[in-house]
Amino acid sequence: MSDTQLRWRDARATAERLLADWHLPGEPGGAITLFDTQRTQAVVCAGQADLARGEPFTADSVVRYASLTKHIFAALALNATEGTLRLDQPLGELLPQLRGEPAAVSVGQALDMTGGLPDVRETLGLLGISGYSVSHAEPVMTFIQGLSRLNFPAGSEISYSNTGYRLVEAALQQRGYRFAQLVQQHIAQPLQLGWQAPDSWFDIVPGLSPGYWRAPQGWQQSSAGLHLSASGSLTGSIDDLTRWLQALLGDRGAAAGVLQQLSAPRYLTNGQLSAYGWGWRAPRSARISYWATAALTPVIKPIFCWRRSGRLVWRWSPTAKTATAPASPCR
Fold it and tell me: How far is residue 118's CA from residue 149's CA, in Å, rounded to a whole number?
């Protein structure tokens, strides 16, 4: 029995331990997939995808990818728009309606979280507008165009904001590149994935698991009113996401070169390494090259990590819960 086989076996055992408490009746669930470039080595599932119907969570359960959407959007924006964007291009050149400091933020800064652009949901919340209030694309863009100041000088620090992705998406859409169409043409259809990119939380997505949050009276179904954008609109199954990641790791087909591009280092204006890039956070560890997490949606927490040496990959995508994950599956 090879050392590699032992590692996969140990990783599966770790995954099973992590989800051991998720088998209780009436509990939302999730899954861990273990895979390399060629095949899925193991899938461990627990809990339910739909509490109302009592449907179990499986590798085919459709979920919201939340901020993992950012990686897909960045890949498409940089590679599938015929050179429409330059990373050093000011947003004001692409969107003349922007004014003041936001207009000078570059495309690269908008995508790597160093732009200082106020997050729409946080800003509306400070104005007393609930995150459950329904909004649409045009009023949201009008609101952003009314902002004239940044939270900090562009490039000086990192602060998580979805606004940069919304603005770059709007710039591409004005030039005929719609995110949902790019997804289908360049990724979903070639890889035969069931990905969809709805505009609203309330759009019908076949088979979509609702997602839940825990209230004092029990689990509640999630919702959000803010118009979705390419910062977090994508939906699909765990199996779909695994196959896309396998294409990235295998450096093949339309995904050739994309992983290296997305994980390229990004720097602040003072020369400091940002350790974030296009949504890929790079912890200081000799064992793990990069890992990513969707952290802003409290009911959906997809995570994946890998090390390039040996191509051992672990990805975890629960719908509603959090577990503390040891490093052993990625050793």
Answer: 9
Structure tokens at 303: 């995570």
* Torsion of Cα atoms, 308 then 313 then 318 then 324, to 10°: -80
Q: Are 18 and 325 in contact (CB under 8 A)?
A: yes
pTM higher than 0.85? yes
How do residues 310-323 score in pLDDT, each as one tens digit? 444 455 444 545 44
CATH of domain 8-306: 3.40.710.10
What are 247-262's pLDDT values in tens digits? 998 998 888 999 888 8
Distance CA 35, CA 26 (A): 29
* Residues 82, 177: Cα–Cα separation, whole Å: 10
Q: What integer is the mean pLDDT of 157-163?
A: 94
CB of 117 closer than 8 Å to CB of 105 = yes
The crossing angle, in degrees rounded to 10, of helices 137-145 and 163-174 is 110
- Residues contacting 289, CB < 8 A, separation 6+: 263, 282, 306, 307, 308
Report domain extents, the chain: 8-306
**Would you give the DSSP letter of residue 324?**
-
Beta strands in 111-216 (DSSP E): 212-215
DSSP for 166-224 reads HHHHHHHHHTT--HHHHHIIIIIHHHT---B--SSTTS--TTB---EEEETTEEEE---
